[in-house]
Amino acid sequence: MDVNKVLVRAFVSLVVSIDLTDDEDIDPDVATDIFEPAAALFRDLSEEGRREVTSLVLECAELEENPERRRVILGLPEAIGLLDED
Q1: Is residue 74 part of a domain?
Q2: What does pLDDT average to in each consecutive run of 10 residues of the chain (86 residues)?
Q3: C-alpha angle with apex 7: 14 to 9, nearest 5 degrees?
Q4: In this structure, is residue 47 part of a structural domain?
């Protein structure tokens, strides 16, 4: 498997797990502190890089069987700024 696919799948898995965790289990501020620096790295990618990551994220959504997790995954490209234009 391609290293980019592995990295994106790992990121998606972590983000979705954190997003779906109850606020009592992980403080939302802590979750944001974990999530934001990683999301900023994706925003620094070239347009082509952002398109590739978006494609890989959507591929993860297609593979996800759990509807709630799939919904979160489908929202990730926008949530991490991949759809923003330069």
Answers
A1: yes
A2: 94 94 92 90 93 97 97 96 74
A3: 55
A4: yes
